Amino acid sequence: MVNQIASLAARLAAVERRLDSASRTAQLAFSSIENGAISVFDDDGSLRAVIGQQPDGTSGVNVVNGPPPPTPGPPTITSVLGGVAATWDGIFADAVAAPLDFARIEVHAAGLDGFTPGAATLCGTLESPCGGTLTIPADQPLYVRLLARNTSGAGSAPSAQAGPVGPAPVVAQEVLDGIVSETKLARGAVTSAALALGAVNSTAIADDAVTTPKLLAGAVTTDKLLAMSVTAEKIAALAVTTEKLTALAVTADKIAVNAVTAEKIAAGSIDATHIKAGAITADKLDANAVNGKVVTGATVRTADSGRRIVLNPSSDSQPALEIYSGSSSEVAPGRVRANVLDMGTWAQPEVMLESPAVASSRADVTLRSPELNGTGLVRLEPSDQLDGYAHITVENGGPNGDSALTLYGARGGNVGGGFHSMVVKGAGITWNSGTRQMTFSGGVLRAPNIVSGTVSITPTANTPTSVTVSGLNVAGTAFRAFVTANSSVPGSVAECTATNVTANGLTVWINRSTTTTTSVWYLIIGS
What we know:
- It is a single chain.
- By secondary structure, the protein is mostly beta strands.
- It has one helix spanning 2-23, and strands at 37-41, 47-53, 59-63, 76-80, 83-88, 102-110, 122-126, 132-137, 142-150, 162-165, 300-301, 308-315, 318-324, 330-332, 334-342, 347-354, 357-358, 377-380, 390-395, 404-410, 419-425, 429-433, 436-441, 444-446, 450-457, 465-469, 479-486, 493-499, 506-512, 518-526.
- The longest helix is centred in the first third of the chain and has 22 residues, at 2-23.
């Protein structure tokens, strides 16, 4: 029993020793983080820091989601050369000291009163929580505000605005006019190189102070003389000679009226380069002064308004003869102009005649030839081609002839040749196709594919008797014939027919009960 109690006491003492040893050992003694990190959360479960390996592969302590820092106090702004200096004294408007996660102070500036800090207004940063000064380049007065950032990147509310303050002037106000007087300048201290252009003018020089001996040769040039300062009474007789005048020094406004007369102008001394644009007008030209001369690049017109003709070197970007009708509804003139079109493998020349364009009416183009003994001829022909060409001819007949309109078109030799034409005359219409002709005159139509005629047949009684007609030359490729007997005794003609109908002719048959010679009419139509 005694041995059991002693054993229990020994075991209890051993437990107490182990407990004491455990309570004195660090929780992470002999611990490490293998390829990972420890996240630190606050009571609300928000991540506040990451210790160990960071998401970008680096290792360290990264503080995140920190609370916004306190608002810094307003800056002090002073003027400096070329800008303003903004100073922060390290004091916060709503905190006693800087937060432990303080990162920097941003300095924002703008010329607008009440501006909101942003990326466009950021001028620089102060890295110390104890304050500092930043110089901001400027050429106008600025307003300045501060904004604090913590290591988490959170920004504070912007500080109160300071300003406006502008850059300091380069020359201080203490240097007043008159401080440096003439008596304070040493003789020879002011040289010509030290004088600004125009600083010494006539009002700064005493009367009679500049005499001839004080002027260097060539010192007085035309650019140093005031306008009209040299008058006639100040120039000695014959003092101004030709060699003392620079080229083009004497212009029209410097010459008195009527000072230059014809006898004072050398022959050939005035050419086009010496004549002012617009100086020569129509009233200054003698009659026949322009006869036989070539005028290039000019606009020639018969009148400045109303019905007129204008030779315009640039009419719708092309030279043209413009024809104005004078109508109040005209919106563009008529034009005659030439052009050559580039068609790639060939060139197409053309002459265009355009009638005037009016607001709401059709446009007519009329070509008329001179009247010769009451007749006239107009011919439209695209070229002088002899093989495969076309033309339109309009001709007046006058009191002794027929007026005619001819439309002619030929086929080229490489496609078979031949031609077609239509002639409209006062007496009728004629259609030509090669050697064939169709006419319409006096209400009668004559066509090469329609042939009619009469043939006489003396039949054998009650026996079909025929006569062949040839040499007709009917136009077409398919032919149809119609025949009828001319008889005063119709009942005696039993039948009248046609066979062998061709372009050359046909065979006419008749069957009659008598042997009376009978006229038979025939009609052949080719198609």
